[in-house]
Design a protein that fits this description.
Length: about 375
């Protein structure tokens, strides 16, 4: 093993920060040398800085400032920026999270530079290759040396794609670790007061390209949200991606509908904790509502997180079906099919991941291919 090995985490977008925080904390506790590379994929203070503050993440060792662009332009900028920074720091292991373009780029760069990698949230599949995230997941898992699965169904998907079982570790869900840590701070009252909401209300987050990029889809969705707002007040902390298209489609402040900037992590989850209903197309929010026991309607034809349906409060809906589903969810409350939370969603995923990484850095329990690579690093 290299003396005092360095672990680098590549983070770029809002959900990455939430997933990485418990891993960074747990590695810190066992004394592993580490650093964060922020790609700058998300850069608005409310999409980035507020998460570092709320989650207690350390300052990045570098911020590549790649910003926005088409998939090709953004990914190209990420590849160029990440290659330089990885060559400069020569890490023993690079850890990537989730399914965003920063994750894909980091995996490609490291594979070509023969730098070992670990993927947190491996094996999730929507089986919908029209989603950019699904492409990123498949490529990332194919190239990662260590695969950290958050949910049991991931194990069979990874096996089907030929992953060596020695590379795969079922560790639980670090996004849920972050939620556990934040729970004592999740008080709905102050954010409700600031926003002027009280009693029963719904929270909606919408940013999937399939929902917000096409004017016709955006119009259908907005109509459905307006119909929900006739039944219950709706607060929409709006992701910058959907801002213009959804406004053009008629999503604007009116009675019972509050359109606001994205909220910081603690404010957002506090608002969700006090909500009677969540409407979303987010990945992470499906998981967080399951954990908080808040009914969630996901406006998507599929989910890479089916466990939130079988073990949680999540239901998939079409835009046309949303108003009736909202009515039913408001009447039914938070009953779940199994009555049990998903396995290992216990707040200890970060320490499990850190233990595997520490053992890997020592050279224990490795597959022959990974051992060979680790010795070279
Ligand atoms: C990205 C991820 C998506 C994830 C989401 C989390 C990819 C392919 N997509 O989508 O999987 O669910 O992050 O939030 O990686 N923008 C700003 N300010 C910012 C960031 C973005 O205004 O700080 C605007 C820009 O107009 C930009 C657009 O949002 O073009 C989209 O940003 P981008 O990072 O490309 O994708 P997201 O839709 O955020
Ligand atoms: N989130 C937040 N403020 C908001 C909306 C979401 O803090 O206004 C948090 C949410 O609690 C979750 C993460 O952002 O932890 C999910 O990010 P997003 O929905 O953007 O991405 P996805 O999970 O769909 O990839």
């Amino acid at each position: 093993m290299r003396e005092n090995p360095l672990v680098l985490h590549v983070l770029g977008a809002r959900p990455n920060f939430v997933k990485a925080a418990p891993v960074v904390r747990a590695l810190d506790e066992i004394g592993v040398r580490q650093g964060i590379i922020h790609t700058g994929q998300h850069y608005d203070a409310l999409m980035s800085d507020v998460f570092f503050a709320d989650l207690g993440l350390p300052e990045p060792v570098a911020n590549l400032g790649v910003g926005s662009g088409s998939h090709a332009k953004q990914t190209a900028a990420l590849l160029v920026g990440l290659e330089d920074v990885v060559l400069e720091h020569r890490p023993s292991l690079v850890v990537v999270y989730g399914d965003v373009n920063s994750t894909l780029a980091a995996i490609l760069v490291c594979a070509k530079l023969h730098i070992p990698t670990a993927h947190v949230e491996a094996g999730l599949r929507s089986f919908d290759r029209e989603m950019p995230e699904e492409v990123n997941r498949v490529v990332t898992d194919a190239l990662s040396d260590i695969l950290f699965a958050t949910s049991p169904e991931a194990l069979s998907y990874l096996a089907r794609e030929g992953a060596d079982p020695e590379r795969v570790h079922l560790v639980g869900n670090p996004m849920i670790d972050s939620l556990f840590s934040a729970l004592p701070k999740l008080d709905p009252a102050p954010v409700q007061e600031r926003l002027g909401v009280s009693g029963r209300y719904a929270v909606a987050t919408l940013h999937r390209p399939a929902n917000v990029d096409d004017p016709e889809s955006a119009r259908e969705l907005v109509e459905a949200v307006l119909a929900v707002a006739e039944r219950v007040p709706v607060v929409v902390p709006l992701h910058p991606r959907g801002r213009q298209r959804l406004a053009d489609a008629g999503l604007m402040d009116r009675e019972n509908l509050k359109i606001i900037d994205p909220l910081g992590y603690v404010d957002f989850l506090s608002l969700v904790r006090g909500a009677a209903l969540v409407v979303t197309d987010s990945g992470g929010v499906q998981e967080e509502t399951t954990m908080l026991g808040v009914p969630c309607l996901t406006v998507r034809p599929n989910t890479e997180r089916p466990i939130t349906v079988t073990h949680g409060t999540n239901r998939l809906v079409t835009p046309a079906g949303l108003p009736a589903a909202a009515e039913k969810a408001l009447a039914d409350g938070s009953a779940t099919p199994s009555g049990e939370l998903p396995p290992l969603w216990d707040g200890a995923a970060g320490p499990r991941i850190a233990r595997v990484i520490a053992a890997w850095l020592r050279g224990d329990n490795l597959s022959p291919a990974a051992q060979g690579r680790n010795r070279q690093s």
